[in-house]
Amino acid sequence: MNEGLYMPEPNLEYILTEAVACETLADREITHLLNLEQPEEVELLFNAARMVRERYFGSAIFIYGFIYFSTYCRNDCAFCLYRRSNPAGKRYRKTPAEILETADQLASSGVHLLDLTMGEDPYYFNEGHFDQLLLLVDQVKKTSGLPVMISPGVVSRDQLQSFREIGVDWYALYQETHNIDLYNKLRLDQDYDERLELKRYAHQLGMLAEEGLLSGIGESAEDLCHSFAVMRELEVDQVRVMSFIPQVGTPLEKYSTGSHLRELKIIALMRLLFPDRLIPASLDVDGLAGLRQRLNAGANVVTSIIPPHKGFQGVSQSTLDVDEGGRSIDAILPVLDACGLQPAPVESYKQWVEQRRKRYS
Ligand code: SF4
Hints:
This protein is about 45% helix and about 15% strand. It is of the alpha/beta class. Strands 1, 2, 3, 4, 5, 6, 7, 8 and 9 form a 9-stranded parallel β-sheet that branches. The model has no long low-confidence stretch (mean pLDDT about 95). Iron/sulfur cluster (SF4) binds next to loops.
């Protein structure tokens, strides 16, 4: 036996102490944390993540209003309810009046940011209606007075620049995975590099960028280590993970996902690896019932607040808790309180965004 190759089993307390103090982890240590199963060990991981969140953000939480204003899409992602070939995906395209009214309602309720999301709707991309989209986003930004995130899918560089010129703050575009083979099975016929490069270009334009992962979809620990390395290299400002939810009418409808514990461990790892970034706890996976565990894993943003009875849908869980009012600020406040957290002042979110944007201006 070559004694030089002997590698002792990583020690959990040592790894976490090192992570909290130095904010670095070797791939071997990341894998060890991802593989934790014992509840008391997983809790040590979450506790370390909360300590790091406290150091950077105190007890303040940011809250995002979500307006999924068109569910039409030209793409055919294997995991998505709204893939173009899925007759089960409920289609709508909200009018400007409906969108502005909803933006106003969300802003009045106290959200920190408005996230304007759509599928890659051919109406806006193929029929010369892009200027309508720009006008709409501009009106939302001006009337709400809030930072705005856009999630329109892949746009041209000129279009992204136009968004920046009207003051859009964030561009969200998720790879879902950085394993190219898996990516090609999930995001059918979509260029991996084009997607990645647009996030870099957003930074060049002075916008903030969000990257996102899908978990429970066949990714390995090695894949996740690689994703973290790519995210570090991209220097994205918000990092997110959401568990895969099987969608009716899609090729992955019957894909078994198991528990969402892996998502929680990834949230905690993101907090340890990206301590000063924003990390969402999404209501779009397990609804209000899953919020506390995501906050306890180290998340510091609650997404996605959706007003009830307006016909707006979510992405992974298109209707869960929406019309019951579970995706409202009133519903999440008791959960924040139980976690010893509270909403940040709106101004402090604006300051965070402006401070962060200085890196790219
Ligand atoms: S994930 Fe986005 S791009 Fe893919 S099908 Fe769904 S809405 Fe379209």
